[in-house]
Design goal:
This protein is α/β, with parallel strands linked by helices. The chain folds into two domains: about 200 residues, HUPs (Rossmann fold, 3-Layer(aba) Sandwich), CATH 3.40.50; about 60 residues, no CATH class. Helix content is about 50%, strand content about 15%. It has a six-stranded mixed beta sheet, with helices on both faces. A three-stranded antiparallel beta sheet has the order 7-8-9, covered by helices on one side. Strand 5 and strand 6 form a beta hairpin. Helix 2 runs parallel beside helix 3 and helix 5 packs across helix 7. The protein is globular. The chain starts with 7 loop residues before the first helix and ends with a strand.
Length: about 290
């Protein structure tokens, strides 16, 4: 784990993630792809400070000729990171996506129980979140479907499933692997357009050329909807700031991050003046909020 670390943002995201609690025993699901290899390495970096007990788990579906090569990559990564590893082989399964997904999570639950883990982490990314939200929209989802992939949810009795990389991009994770000189494998089924998710992924590749912030925006929207539906205190503060701006006719073109700056200040009971957009500021003091225009 020595050497330069040009991708400190990823390590900081893992280190500061409140959904992962200090002292937990954690299974890190690793397929051998760049996303899950980066997750394993970043969690290994953070583990001494967060007092985590880690174990890598790999599920070999045997579904393609390169499956054993993927397993070899994960074994190499585990040895490099000096982490224990559990492997599961799932042969003679039906090859439809739903059956394989259920079998994979069942295997991860067994690994968690054998290791005494309370959490299984997976490397779902911002791109995965975008695809999930769009697929839900295409199916005609209700509001709950717009929350996308949950950052942490129950997987089994006393075992949670956590996705700490939902705000990270695939490119960021790939670069992290390369900066750490860690190997990773490619999944050729990602190019198979008979899977609906892959068809959406191909269309998004083109859209990102015109909308480079697409994944970040969708992840943010899913996060906001989840907080609203869950009744989070921050959601109420966010509405308060937005309503104050709307009452003065100045909500249009206000950047999300500027609203969040005021929300964070309200959470901490701070006073001050916060820029909303050109010529408009949000003033906080003694729990009061006002919008001022120049």
């Amino acid at each position: 784990m020595r050497g330069a670390r040009p991708q400190r943002a990823l390590e900081h995201a893992i280190l500061s993630d409140p959904r992962l609690r200090d002292g937990e025993s954690i299974i890190v699901a690793c397929s051998g792809g760049p996303d899950s290899v980066a997750l394993a390495a970043a969690m290994r970096f953070a583990s001494p400070k967060r007092k985590w007990r880690l174990c890598i788990a790999h599920v070999n579906h045997g579904a393609r000729p390169s499956a054993d090569q993927d397993e070899a990559v994960v074994l190499h990564v585990a040895a490099t990171l000096q982490l224990p590893i559990m492997t599961a082989h799932l042969n003679d399964l039906a090859r439809d996506e739903q059956t394989m997904r259920k079998a994979r999570y069942d295997a991860l639950k067994r690994s968690a129980k054998d290791f005494g883990a309370t959490v299984v982490t997976t490397a779902h990314t911002a791109e995965d979140q975008t695809e999930t939200v769009l697929l839900a929209l295409f199916r005609g989802t209700g509001t709950s479907g717009l929350t996308g992939i949950a950052a942490r949810r129950k997987l089994a009795d006393r075992i949670d499933l956590c996705r700490p990389l939902l705000r990270c991009t695939h490119e960021q994770l790939r670069r992290y692997c390369e900066s750490m000189c860690l190997p990773y494998a490619f999944d050729p089924t990602n190019d198979d357009l008979t899977y609906r998710r892959n068809a959406v992924r191909g269309a998004l590749t083109t859209l990102r050329l015109s909308f480079p912030g697409l994944d970040r925006a969708v992840a943010r929207a899913a996060y906001i909807v989840a907080e609203e539906l869950g009744g989070a205190p921050r959601a109420a503060l966010r509405r308060r700031v937005r309503e104050a701006l709307e009452e003065t006719g100045e909500l249009l073109d206000v950047d999300f991050e500027h609203v969040e700056s005021a929300v964070r200040a309200l959470e901490r009971g701070r006073s001050g003046v916060f820029h909303a957009k050109r010529g408009v500021t949000v003033r906080l003091g003694r729990g009061q909020l006002s919008v001022k225009k120049r």
